[in-house]
Design a protein that fits this description.
The structure is a single chain. The chain is α/β, with parallel strands linked by helices. The protein has helices at 10-22, 33-40, 59-69, 85-93, 106-120, 154-165, 173-181, 189-202, and strands spanning 2-6, 26-30, 47-50, 76-80, 98-101, 129-131, 134-137, 142-145, 148-150, 170-172, 211-216, 220-225. The strands form 3 sheets. The protein has a 5-stranded parallel sheet with strand order 2-1-3-4-5, with helices on both faces. Strands 6-7-8-9 form a 4-stranded antiparallel sheet, covered by helices on one side. Strands 10-12-11 form a 3-stranded antiparallel sheet. Strand 6 (129-131) and strand 7 (134-137) form a beta hairpin. The chain is elongated, with a radius of gyration of 19 Å.
Length: 229
């Protein structure tokens, strides 16, 4: 999963980054609200971890902006020194999903992150997954379409599964590249576009079959289920 962490304390950011990356996630760190909001205008994430006291704004203000402009369902975790009942009420009332008091305890952080991701993305179970006429078989890393096998390369399978599991979400190019090719992969946009084009053809992704992949200028792609024509 792709996580964004916001805190003006570099040591706290590094602790959160190390903990989440040890879980197998990709963590992008930000030290000001303006920096994170700028990124959220062109990038997508699976989870936000946000501090309360920031040099240019407050955590609740950031959360409210995210809920109004980005994604009403994006899981958000507060990690803060605030611990009064009124703070917890305000934090959750602003739109956050969970609240954790500093100092950060690694085991608790990992447990809360896991719980939020599991609730937000329940399809990511690792077993056989069906999406209408498409069946994903993780053990063989293959796809069946109407019961017939579809020949896919490894990264084509990873990209297809990620798109189906995130149906309806706008996914940035960097998000797709990092999840499919890895955190440090230097992948040209043309390579991603080529993979998307091949999946359209191999899986017959078109309105007549109930699915479309749409390019969103300046951001990335959105995979959607539509009413079959």
């Amino acid at each position: 999963m792709r996580i964004a962490a916001l805190d003006d304390d570099a040591l706290q950011l590094d602790l959160i980054r190390q903990a989440t990356e040890a879980m197998g996630h990709i963590c992008h760190t930000h030290c000001s609200g303006a920096e994170l909001l700028r990124e959220l205008r062109r990038q997508t994430f699976d989870l936000l971890i946000i501090d309360w006291q920031l040099p240019d704004t407050t955590g609740p203000e950031v959360v409210r902006w995210v809920r109004q402009h980005v994604d009403a369902k994006l899981p958000i975790l507060f990690v803060t020194h605030r611990q009064e009942e009124r703070d917890i009420v305000e934090g959750l009332g602003s739109g956050a999903d969970d609240f954790m008091v500093k100092p950060v305890r690694i085991g608790e952080l990992k447990a809360r992150v896991t719980a939020l991701l599991r609730r937000a993305y329940p399809e990511n179970t690792g077993g056989v997954v069906d999406f209408g006429r498409y069946r994903f078989l993780p053990e063989t890393r293959s796809i069946e379409m109407d019961g017939a096998p579809v020949e896919l390369k490894n990264r084509e399978y990873e990209l297809a599964l990620f798109l189906f599991q995130n149906m309806g979400r706008l996914l940035s190019r960097d998000h797709l590249r990092e999840i499919v090719w890895g955190q440090t992969a230097d992948v040209m946009s043309r390579s991603l576009d080529t993979h998307i084009s091949r999946l359209r053809t191999l899986l017959d992704l078109r309105p007549g079959n109930g699915y479309i992949v749409t390019a969103v200028y300046g951001v990335g792609y959105r995979f959607e289920a539509v009413e079959a024509l």
